[in-house]
Amino acid sequence: MKIDLKDKVIIVTGGSGGIGSAIINELSNSGATIVSVYHQNPVNEKPAINIFYMQTNLLEPEEWEKLLSYTLKNFGRIDILINSAGVLEPGEFSLLQKDKLNNMIDLNFTSILVGIQKTIAIMMKQGYGQIINIGSLGGIVPMPYSAVYSATKFALRGFSFSLAEELKGTGINISLITPGSVKTKMLNYEAKNEYSSISFLSKPISVEKVANAVLKLIHKPKIELIIPRSQAIPPKLLVFSPRLFSELYKILHRIGISAKKKYLLRF
Questions:
Q1: Of 32, 205, 222, 224, which is least surrounded by CB within 10 A?
Q2: d(Cα 34, Cα 252) in Å, to the nearest integer?
Q3: Count of domains in the chain?
């Protein structure tokens, strides 16, 4: 999707991840000035004159302040913040180590709240801005054996919708991209867990499709964009009644396990 963003200053978290890298590539092609934020993973992208890499631990509020200050000092404003950093630790909740539990909650939700709070303070002074959060269908459909991850995405979805209402009339737009399964290292990691199944009920989409959805939201903001579009209705119907999900789960689990075996053979 071709959009001219040469005058936009955009921060992308999770810049070295599969989705984050794809978003940065798309934005780079559009001419935007991009601050790519990564934590520990090395950045393998080709150097580009409009991409600026910054190693940041987003779990620390002070690091958010450094990131935002760096962006303002060097580029004068922040037009768009895209939150794509995230982590998933699959397995039985009763066996989940406390540090991994806390890391999911902190990175997938708490750090996003801190970053958005600091960012909207800047955008309020500007009188405009856009924030795009990368959610998951796991924030609509329960994910047994990825319960904490699912909880963080449920929380992010509710937060995004609530904040969008608060910010009406301020010039700041909040959007949520809700993708189904995406072909990333995280999905490969999840596939290695014998109980994980929900993520494999549908064919995984490419990271490029998520990046393209980001461009669509920048061009035409809306509160939520579920991708692929074919998955927009079934998840909502499935969780209309928790009892319905419970009754169908055994069937869905078997289908997901079978699909996961095919995924592992292919990827």
A1: 222
A2: 41
A3: 1
